[in-house]
Design brief:
By secondary structure, the chain is α/β, with parallel strands linked by helices. It is built from 13 helices and 14 strands. Strands 7-6-8-9-10-13-14 form a seven-stranded mixed beta sheet, with helices on both faces. A five-stranded parallel beta sheet has the order 2-1-3-4-5, with helices on both faces. Strand 9, helix 9 and strand 10 form a beta-alpha-beta unit. Helix 5 crosses helix 6 and helix 11 packs across helix 12.
Amino acid sequence: MKRKVLAMILIFVLVLSLAACGKKEEPKQEDPKPAEEQQEEAEEPEETEEPEEPAAEAQGVTDDKILVGNTAATSGAFAAVGVPFNAGLEAALKVYNDAGGFNGKKVELVHYDDGFDAAQGLTYTKTLVEDDKVFALVGHFGTNTVGATLDYLKEKGVPMTYAATGISALYQEGATGKDACIFPVQPIFDAEGRVLLARAVAKGDVGLGGTKIGVIATTDDAGNGILTGIKRQAQEGTFDITYQEVDPAATDYTAALTIIKNAGCDVVIAAMNQAPFATVMTSMRDIDYNAKVITSYVSASATTLGELVAQGAITAERPVYTTAWLDVTTEKGLADYMEFAAAQLAWEAENGVAEADTYSVNSYAMAGYVAGKLFVHGLEQVAAQGMDLTWENYIAAMETAPFPVPMGGEIDYANGDRLGITALALNTIGLEADENGLYALVSVSPIMSLDEVWAAQ
């Protein structure tokens, strides 16, 4: 999602005072004023009302709604991510709308299916901004589209809340001007790479206790970002690490994994997105390579990982761990989850989703819910300060109060910092399906800072 000319339309309404048209009363003849006084009165200008300040309205904001948009892959290989993500987003917006919205204005989502294609994502982003004239991008979805549209959104200054990716270009310290319109939440790959290595070598319940680490990284934004973070963290100690880079579109990684296996690596870090990660696991199965595997939060889906368990790619001897920026094992996390689940089920009931197809246990739906809550957080801050809903005011309001991430930590956008979540938990996938054939993510270690994890070597 990269370039698109997004013009913010400001409508100025001047309220002009109207002069009275009635006849003036003639002065009484019996009490005429001296000629000098009459002359002074004639020379005095009539008092007129001062025109009211013009009211500025941002595009996408009408008397009864606030139009927002996103492009997300809701078909093809990434539909398993995009569909529940948008469902969670819609659930969060429904809660806000049902409570009255922004001064009676309801938030409405316009969505296009870009099929996880960068060029299509750019086209649709331009359509949203220039034709649909949305107020903001909410839940801007996927590495390809975010990477293709980020410069365009910054150039135009349209608010973008929550990027469903962690590409390096999102990371900003002290962003100013139009650059400040970007509000990431998910962990940014560079920072996550540092956490992945820390978890790989940490001992006990904190990590995997690896002694020799294999890194298989795709040569795309996700893989490059995570790899950069791993190498940065590796400078903090002395480690035996074998690196292999692979094509993200390849359907077989046995050659690269054989090198890692022959190096005796007992932990493999998969630095990549969901599709190549599945290829890693089936390739490890095919060469009978048993080692612990840890990968990005982007693959932390019970559904996706459960399918790999069912295929024999994930086993007790070849367990998979993922980072997680959402944690429902704490008291607060569980309370937030129950709130999410209730909202999700209510939206599904209204939209005819069968109970068996619920997304109330889907991590991607949780992420979409967080995206919706983040956008609403900005609206709430604008309303609390009694400001008009403009891009400038929205961006400023987002920096005034930290965002308490549902089921997660807290993000503070003050002073232009756009860092994403930097404290992560560690999960694994259970190997036993329930009576409905569903697998569950299991918490291994709660949300911890990088320093806390690194200290557990």
